[in-house]
Design a protein that fits this description.
- The chain has about 140 residues and is mostly beta strands.
- The protein has strands at about 1-5, 10-15, 15-20, 25-30, 45, 50, 55-60, 70-75, 85-90, 90-95, 100-105, 110, 115, 125, 130.
- The strands form 4 sheets. Strands 9, 10, 11, 12 and 13 form a 5-stranded antiparallel sheet that branches. Strands 1-2-3-4 form a 4-stranded antiparallel sheet, with no helix packed on it. It has a 4-stranded antiparallel sheet with strand order 5-6-7-8, with no helix packed on it.
- The chain is globular and about 40 Å long.
Length: about 140
């Protein structure tokens, strides 16, 4: 489906799998998930790979080992095909179907209330310290 890159790794994603490839082109780790459907590209933030699923699961893995650091079920909504987590000034924003939520990286948890309550937001764009969003629902 796609991949994200950092200085030392590329992480690819399929419908139910994450694969990490090292700088030399070797497979560093891979992880298959049985009851999860990914429809968006993960992000790499510091030493984490963060992947959101279409079925209300958020997974945070260690970039070096693939070990699951946090597995969050019952997220505030689903994340649709093509939308992605956005990183801006050390903050991570997730466009769930119920609004834009911030991922608290200190506690590795999703804030309980959206920073922007919005039905079916599209991928947010951050420009000049503003979050710009739209919706495909009228």
């Amino acid at each position: 489906m796609g991949f994200c890159v950092s200085d030392n790794y590329a992480v690819g994603i399929t419908e139910n799998m994450l694969v990490c490839i090292g700088k030399a082109g070797d497979v560093t780790w891979e992880r298959t998930f049985k009851d999860i459907v990914f429809m968006t590209i993960p992000v790499i933030y510091k030493n984490y790979v963060i992947a959101a699923s279409a079925d209300n699961v958020l997974i945070i893995c260690d970039i070096k080992t693939g070990d699951i650091i946090k597995y969050i079920t019952k997220t505030p909504g689903s994340i649709s095909l093509g939308y992605s987590i956005q990183i801006y000034k050390e903050r991570l924003y997730i466009p769930y179907s119920t609004g834009i939520y911030e991922l608290n990286m200190k506690s590795l948890s999703i804030n309980s209330k959206p920073i922007i309550p919005f039905i079916s937001p599209t991928n947010p764009v951050i420009h000049d310290n503003q979050i710009i969003i739209s919706s495909f629902i009228t």
